[in-house]
Amino acid sequence: MPKPEVSASYQELSEDVERVSENPTDEREGEMEVHEDSSSVILPDGELGTTTPSLRFSKTCLKNVFSVILLFIYLLLMAVAVFLVYQTISDFREKLKHPVMSVTYKEVSLYDAPGIAFYPGKARLLSCKHHYYDHIPPLINPGQPGDIECTTQRINYSDPFTNQTMKYALVVQGPRDVKKRELVFLQFHLNETDQDFSAIDYLLFSSFQEFVSSTEKAKFMKDCESSYSSWKFSGGFRTWVKMSLVKTKEEDGSETVEFKQETSVVNYIDQRTKPRSDQLFFVVFEWKDPFIQTVQDIITANPWNMIALLCGIFLALFKAADFAKLSVKWMIKIRRRHLKRSRQVTNHIS
User: Fold this and answer.
1) Whole-number Å distance between alpha carbons of 301 and 305
2) What keywords are annotated for this sequence in UniProt (predicted)?
3) Residues 6+ apart with CB under 8 A from 142
4) What are phi and psi of 45, to 5 degrees?
């Protein structure tokens, strides 16, 4: 009969439903096992659509190496900048301690007539004339008084070094026109002397006009004798003195004047008929050239140049430090990204 078979199948179905309801976790575990088995299948590289880990690692390594090289380069540049700062400051201090002497030349057509102070002693001025173009006419009656065409002044003052003895000076106006080669020719006569050698002292000062306009001429001459050097010219010769003017500027802004001389001496042939025991002195004063030499100390260190250079160096230092900081941050970021990708790939493979 068919009825007993239907009842038997229904009973088996109910038993299966009860078994499933009593153990639901077993079925889920089976499903998970199936899913894990399906996920454990490894696809080839082409199907993953990503690059291999070794290639990615090589690119990251190259980037890191390049960053390290750049970092060392900028550290080297920073060291060079620091050395330049030190060297610049050292050079500036050295130039401040040792200024450079500067010499300039100013061309003039007329000089301020210098003063020529003679200390003739027992000698007497016979003649004084201005000539031009280096031409001195032949002597007429040498040893006899002649024309005195120069501006002269006589003055007595006490010796600036001892203040005990009196000195007599004959001050003569020197030449002015350097373009026409103006010169002053003077002749002195010394009747007799008890010395073995005969000579006349003289000194040069910068301006004859200052001497004339001075109210205290004795003090003026004492100051000149204290400031300027004195020279001599001998009897029996014609001494030709070529002068040049040197101005020196001091650190406090004051200016000093100094004369340089070139002298040439020619023997005088005495053609007077009777032998004499007196001495004749001949001296010529002329400007050497139309150039006034100015000497001054110049500090070649320019503070503005040093400040500009230091600003540029410090700017480069800050830029290099900023770049180094960014490079380190970038390297750390790249390293973290590389580690993160490595973990992702490891987890994916596992």
Assistant:
1) 8
2) Cell membrane, Chloride, Chloride channel, Ion channel, Ion transport, Membrane, Transmembrane, Transmembrane helix, Transport
3) 187, 270, 272, 280
4) -65, -40
Q: Which two tokens stand for residue 293?
A: 């030499």
Which is it for strands 237-249 and 152-158: parallel, antiparallel or unpaired? unpaired
CA angle 121, 209, 228 (to 5 degrees): 55
- DSSP E strands: which ranges in 111-174? 115-119, 124-131, 152-158, 166-173
Closest CA to 327 of 91, 146, 140, 69: 69
Backbone angles phi, psi at 25, to 5 degrees: -70, -30
Q: Which residues pair with 167 in a beta bridge?
A: 157
User: Rounded CA gap, 62 and 54, in Å?
Assistant: 12
Q: What number of other Cβ atoms are within 10 A of residue 117's Cβ?
A: 23
Tens digits of residue pLDDT in 298-319: 777 777 777 777 777 777 777 7
- Computed on alpha carbons and rounded to an integer, the radius of gyration of the chain in Å comes to 55
Nearest to 241 by CA among 294, 188, 282: 282
110: DSSP letter: B
Residue 67: partners with Cβ closer than 8 Å, 6 or more residues away = 327, 330, 331, 334
Write the pLDDT tens digit of every residue in 34-86. 333 333 333 344 444 444 556 655 766 776 677 677 778 777 877 777 787 78
Sign of the four-CA dihedral 149, 150, 156, 161: negative
Question: Do the beta carbons of residue 260 and residue 246 sit within 8 Å?
Answer: yes
Mean pLDDT lowest among 32-36, 54-58, 140-144, 327-331 = 32-36
E-strand ranges in 250-350 read: 255-267, 279-287, 291-298
Q: How many CB atoms within 10 Å of residue 169?
A: 23
